[in-house]
Write a structure and sequence with these properties.
CATH architecture: 3-Layer(aba) Sandwich
Bound molecules: adenosine-5'-triphosphate
Number of domains: 1
Protein name: ABC transporter ATP-binding protein
Keywords: ATP-binding, Cell membrane, Membrane, Nucleotide-binding, Transport
Helix content: 25-40%
GO molecular function: ATP binding
Distance between the termini: 21 Å
Number of helices: 7
Pfam families: ABC_tran
Structural class: alpha/beta
Mean pLDDT: 94
Largest sheet: 6 strands, mixed
Strand order of the largest sheet: 6-7-8-3-9-10
Shape: globular
Strand content: 25-35%
Organism: Massilia hydrophila
CATH superfamily: P-loop containing nucleotide triphosphate hydrolases
CATH class: Alpha Beta
Oligomer: single chain
């Protein structure tokens, strides 16, 4: 379970989030929508612990993220979370297979599922290629394979289908659903796409006054 408790964040004196509270139940697939600039990516970054709130706290299974030291926070992210960022953060000097296998290797697991996940995102047989040989949509799919490969308990996805054509996007959304259902994982997906939001258990709208059910 993930609890957001009165989260506030401002940049340069301008409030982006002001006292936002919400509880996400374990295993729930939630879509967050809202107008550009309202703070959706900021919220995901706070949940991921990649940025700190000015006030308020994020609790993961009852533990305040702020109470963890850097090593413990990194361990929590590495073992329990999967990330799909808007900028894909695919490492240029690693092959696609090595990129996808990274969460497994960092967790001391064998990298057996990397090829299976490349296959699942439509990049089977391209494991030895390097990121520079890929299109934007293909890079996004590598990032998706990497986010799922270690079966995280919580998937955080920022516009995971933003660079994909509608058919490929649909296939990827089905993969996200299938993988999270199989492992009982929760997901928080920021999206402008109504097709993407339609497959979530719950769609929330982020506005200046907080998160609301649609
Ligand atoms: N590091 C930063 N420094 C200064 N301002 C920032 C920073 N990060 C975000 N902002 C500002 O905070 C506001 C919210 O940004 P955020 O990226 O969270 O919006 P968003 O809802 O995800 O938008 P979009 O749908 O366009 O991706 C924006 O006005 C943005 O300019």
């Amino acid at each position: 379970m993930l609890v957001l408790d009165k989260l506030s964040k401002s940049y340069g004196g301008r409030d982006v989030l002001a006292g936002l509270s919400h509880t996400f139940r374990a295993g729930e697939f939630v879509a967050i929508m809202g107008e550009s600039g309202v703070g959706k990516s900021t919220l995901l970054n706070l949940i991921a612990g990649l940025d700190a709130p000015d006030s308020g706290q994020v609790l993961v299974d009852g533990t305040p993220m702020a109470a963890l030291d850097d090593a413990a926070a990194t361990r929590l992210r590495r073992t329990r979370m999967g990330f799909i960022f808007q900028a894909f953060h695919v490492l240029p000097h690693l092959s696609l297979r090595q990129n996808v296998a990274l969460p497994l290797l960092l967790n001391g697991a064998i990298d057996g599922r990397a090829d299976e996940m490349l296959d699942a995102v439509g990049l089977g047989g391209r494991g030895a290629d390097f990121p520079r040989q890929l299109s934007g949509g293909e890079l996004q799919r590598v990032a998706i394979a990497r986010a799922l490969v270690h079966r995280p308990a919580l998937l955080l996805a920022d516009e995971p289908t933003g660079n994909l054509d509608p058919d490929t996007a649909q296939g990827i959304l089905e993969l996200l659903r299938r993988e999270t259902r199989q492992s009982g994982a929760g997901a928080i997906m920021v999206t402008h796409s109504h097709a993407a939001a339609a497959m979530a258990d719950q769609v929330l709208l982020l506005t200046r006054s907080g998160l609301k059910l649609t």
